[in-house]
Automatic annotation (TrEMBL):
InterPro entries: CheY-like_superfamily (IPR011006), EvgA-like (IPR051015), Sig_transdc_resp-reg_C-effctor (IPR016032), Sig_transdc_resp-reg_receiver (IPR001789), Tscrpt_reg_LuxR_C (IPR000792), WH-like_DNA-bd_sf (IPR036388)
Ribonucleoprotein keyword on record: no
Gene Ontology biological process: phosphorelay signal transduction system; regulation of DNA-templated transcription
Protein name: DNA-binding NarL/FixJ family response regulator
Keywords, comma-separated and alphabetical: DNA-binding, Phosphoprotein
Domain of life the protein comes from: Bacteria
4-aspartylphosphate, modified sites: D55
């Protein structure tokens, strides 16, 4: 059973994304930590850890700094950087820092799970995800949309969601529309019902 650790300083998203990832990758165990320090402590207490996923935005630290720290303390654990910024330069920096992969938040969660399964098997994943959605089926929410979904579930309006995630309010509206389409929901209330049924909340 693969053991993963997700380090992200947005606790609600961290837990929600971990839950969705475990749902997309049956059998995987996904633990969470909200700070780099907590992540290092959790890794020390988990000798069977296979992969650590580090968000690029970690409060006072960056995910790239986290990659270096984990490389020194846990060189046998595969390290993956996650970011909403999918700039090739950041991907290159992650690779240079010894990461086994880079996952952009625009990728569907099931595709990220497939990428992580490849990394767990010893592969490297940079660039496009290795698995597309089946023909004719919705791709499902992306990691960024999962962040939006968690804030919608808190009852936050688009303006507050935009501020929390550091994106434009128009972008939030696009993500909400995409969530409605992906989960085939009629409105925000129905969206939350379907998300809970799917195990996303």
């Amino acid at each position: 059973m693969p053991q993963l650790l997700l380090v992200d300083d947005h606790p609600l998203f961290c837990v929600g994304f971990a839950h969705a990832l475990a749902h997309a990758w049956p059998g995987a165990r996904v633990d969470t930590a909200s700070t780099l320090e907590a992540g290092l402590a959790a890794a020390a207490a988990q000798p069977g850890l296979d992969i650590v996923l580090l968000d690029q935005r970690l409060g006072a630290h960056t995910g790239l700094q986290g990659l270096a720290l984990f490389a020194r303390q846990f060189p046998l654990v595969a390290r993956v950087l996650i970011s909403g910024d999918e700039d090739p330069a950041l991907q290159a920096a992650a690779r240079e820092a010894g990461a086994s992969g880079f996952l952009g938040k625009s990728q569907p969660v099931h595709a990220m799970a497939a990428a992580l399964a490849s990394i767990a098997a010893g592969g490297l994943v940079f660039g496009p995800p290795p698995l597309a959605a089946p023909q004719g089926l919705p791709a499902g929410p992306t990691a960024r949309q999962m962040e939006v979904l968690q804030l919608v579930a808190q009852g936050q309006p688009n303006k507050r969601i935009a501020q929390a995630l550091g994106i434009a309010e128009r972008t939030v509206k696009l993500h909400v529309t995409a969530l409605l389409d992906a989960l085939q929901a009629r409105n925000r209330t129905h969206l939350l019902v379907v998300a809970r049924e799917r195990g996303l909340l």
